[in-house]
Amino acid sequence: TVTNVDVPYEDLIDLLGKRLSLEECVDRITFMGAGPEGVQDGTMTFDIFPNRPDLYSVEGIARGLRGFLGLELGLPRYSVGSATTDFIVNPNVADVRPFALGGIVRGLDLDTALLRSLVDLQEKLHLTVGRKRRKVAIGIHDLDRVTAPFTYKAVLPPEVRFTPLGLAEEMDLLDILVKHEKGREYAHLVASQPVFPIITDAKGNVLSFPPIINGVLTQLTPDTRNVFIDVTGTELEAVGGCLTIIATSLAERGGKIELVRTKYHDRTIETPDLTPRPHTLDVRRANDLLGLSLKPNEAVEFLQRMRHDARAEGDVIMASSPAYRLDLLHEVDLSEDLAIASGYDRYPRGLPQGMTIGAPLAANEFGETLRTLLIGYGYQEVMSLTIASAKEPVQTPPRVEVLNPLGEEFTTLRSSLLPALLNIFRLNKHRELRRTCDGSLRRRCTTKLR
Fold it and tell me: Per residue in 438-450, is it b (16+ CB within 10 Å) or e — as a string?
């Protein structure tokens, strides 16, 4: 699904550093790959596809637009200070929410526009990359209200009390899940665990109860100048990516990023990690894929407009890509950047080179015939889910496990039709259901109960 991002016109112009008309802004951002949703009271709204979470804020869009317009080429450069703060990850969180990373941004002027943009970006990352906070949750704190080092640990729910954002009374962690709006909304992410994760400072003050709510102690205000960012989750790469997006977005507002030493029992990581990611692109393959005729030097310029550093070695482009680009998995992704930078509005037009007429596959025709025959013989067709519980009381061949299941009923990919069919019989014992077949795997769907 796409995500709506509001872009205040005057805010964008300040960040862009060049005066464009409102219509020009809408036009150029659209050709960056966004979907225009309209303009109201000087605020543009765009649909941003989920592969580009770095564009979920006006800061990210301005950064991309400066490159797209040729105002800045290549990798964005950020001033990064050395690590002076420790963020300790206690091993006892391993079975609850195992990963956490930290970062600091100093020297901010947290005006209304930045605060609104920051909170909006945080929630969009929670919803998309974070899978509604299941995979990633982000906390942003007033650094000057607490004392380093910070510790991420698991505790028994009744043992810790603090005042959460939005309320004026101290509560223990169980009370928060019951009485706080965010607690009720996200309780399912931690309620089944015997211990809950929290983040504390050197004096024992609670900064956050991830992924539920921050403490009121570190609430951001217009007087906040320095922030500590914590990101926790179940996948380290996603956690690091979200930290990088938040930190670099704040740096676009003039903040200075400072590394944090995140200490695990077996390693220490300095974050946010802004090291450019290396990629290669074969220009000939990209041209074949896109229907273009770009020369290597043209491809280099277009990639620089998309905020990559790039150089040509023959027909191969060596690219260094920003750490906040979480979508770059294959040279096809760089090819898409070439298409965007070359201009969708200047793309060559023409009919497809080869015309084809669709026809069903032989296997599908066989399956359809088999389904029809079985129904004619008195079988009733059912369609069962391909995802099933690992606790089914039927022995089946080995299954593939789902890393982040929605629930206990959706933990594996089925390897047999039998458990689902037996369950259908169990649920329909009161009906006359003598014979049935599963139409989702038609070559093996004739299961009979006598």
Answer: bbbebeebebeee
What mean pLDDT is predicted for residues 397-401? 90
Residue 354 forms part of a structural domain: no
Confidence of residue 434 (pLDDT cuts 50, 70, 90): low
Whether 45 and 38 have beta carbons less than 8 Å apart is answered as yes
CA dist 305 and 319 (Å) reads 12
User: Prior bond to 397 cis, omega within 30?
Assistant: no
Range of 58's domain? 3-68
* DSSP states along 201-260: -TT--EEEETTTEEBGGG---TT---EEEEEEES-HHHHHHHHHHHHHHHHTTT-EEEEE
- What is the tally of structural domains in the chain? 4
Q: Are residues 384 and 248 in the same domain?
A: no
pLDDT confidence bin for 94, thresholds 50/70/90:
very high
* CB-CB contact of 49 with 2 (8 Å): yes
Task: Tell me what pLDDT residue 355 has.
Answer: 75
The pLDDT tens digits for 230-255 are: 999 999 999 999 999 999 999 999 99
Does residue 293 sit in helix, strand or coil? coil
pLDDT exceeds 90 at position 207: yes
Whether the upstream peptide bond of residue 91 has omega within 30° of 0, thus cis, is no
- Strands 80-89 vs 256-263: parallel, antiparallel or unpaired: parallel
Beta strands 387-388 and 316-321, pairing class: unpaired
- Rounded to two decimals, the pTM is 0.80
Q: What integer best gives the mean pLDDT of the chain?
A: 92
**One domain for residues 98 and 246:** yes
CB within 8 Å of 296: residues ≥ 6 apart: 283, 312, 314, 315, 317
pLDDT of residue 1: 64
Does residue 66 contact residue 72 with C-beta atoms inside 8 Å?
Answer: yes
Residues 99 and 221 in one domain: yes
Q: How confident is the model at residue 408 (pLDDT cuts 50, 70, 90)?
A: confident
Range list of β-strands (E), 77-149: 80-89, 99-106, 136-142
Q: Which of 85, 77, 76 is nearest to 258 (CA)?
A: 85
Rounded Cα distance between 94 and 97, Å, is 6
